[in-house]
Write a structure and sequence with these properties.
Low-confidence stretches: none
Number of domains: 2
Radius of gyration: 19 Å
Helix content: 40-55%
CATH topology of the largest domain: 2-enoyl-CoA Hydratase, Chain A, domain 1
Order of helices and strands: EEHEHHEEHEEHHEHEHHHH
Shape: globular
CATH class of the largest domain: Alpha Beta
Largest sheet: 6 strands, mixed
Strand order of the largest sheet: 1-2-3-4-6-9
Strand content: 5-15%
Distance between the termini: 32 Å
Length: 268
């Protein structure tokens, strides 16, 4: 059962602090529709306000992770005016920006093909685990569009480097799971039958740390990947550490470490 009444997504809580979002259009390899964009915006808004959600896992139902924009919706794009298309593009890409900017860490459990927007969604996550069936491509360039879409031109070079990103985006070729692990596109490849279990285990490890510490860590990573210098990066880190030491959870973490017991955090 989905926690919310969505047509294209299923939202569940498989463990304390862990939210699982499943793209639920298996008959279309979980291709994105305009309705799914609406629902992605909505679920991100809910997660932004959800104090119980510590880590988010996103995956696809069935054989695919996400096949990109559904071609039944894509055929309407040429009939839009330039203004309509620009406003739509901003809205659609904004769903991926929202995912990337969630306060919770996001793990993509890539169970199959991640093409076009599916690649963009996987890259919007902080961590990517893949099954051996996972495949990735910048499909946009294969259908007459630029491969720069939904943030891929920003995120892919940061994950795999400019050279690999150029080849993937200009050719549109598929990258299989083994190559994806070699170039750093995914953190690791795990057996298909244990993909979600390992994603949940990793999510639980993250959720065992202080809520504020995890949020600060995600923010400092995203901020400092583009820092102009070491001193600028350290300045951001220093402010985060100063804030973290003001909360009750820091005292509790120290006490639990000294007493060799699990910590109990209040997110205060």
């Amino acid at each position: 059962m989905s926690e919310f009444d969505y047509a294209t997504l299923r939202v569940e809580r498989p463990r304390d602090g862990v939210v699982l979002i499943t793209l639920a259009r298996p008959q279309r390899m979980n291709a994105i529709t305009f309705e799914m964009f609406d629902e992605l915006h909505d679920v991100c808004g809910r997660l932004l306000r959800d104090r119980e959600a510590r880590v988010v896992v996103v995956t696809g139902e069935g054989r695919g992770f996400c096949a990109g924009l559904d071609l039944d919706d894509a055929v309407t794009l040429p009939d839009m005016s330039p203004h309509e298309m620009m406003l739509g593009q901003q809205y659609w890409a904004g769903a991926f920006v929202n995912f990337h900017e969630l306060p919770q860490p996001v793990i993509a459990a890539v169970n199959g093909a991640a093409a076009g927007g599916g690649l963009g969604l996987a890259l919007a996550a902080d961590i990517r685990l893949a099954s051996p069936a996972a495949r990735f491509n910048a499909a946009f360039v294969k259908i007459g569009l630029s491969a720069g879409d939904v943030g891929v031109s920003w995120s892919l070079p940061r994950v795999v480097g400019l050279g690999h990103a150029a080849e993937i985006m200009l050719s549109g070729r598929f990258v299989d799971a083994a190559e994806a692990a070699t170039i750093g596109l995914v953190n690791r490849v795990v057996p298909a039958e244990s993909l979600l279990q390992e994603s949940f285990e990793l999510a639980s490890q993250i959720a065992s740390n202080t809520p504020f510490g995890v949020t600060l860590t995600k923010r400092v990573l995203n901020a400092n990947v583009d820092a102009g210098s070491l001193s600028q990066a350290v300045e951001v880190e220093n402010r985060g550490q100063t804030l973290a030491t003001r909360g009750d959870d820091f005292r509790e973490a120290l006490a639990a470490f000294r007493e060799k017991r699990p910590a109990t955090f209040t997110a205060r």
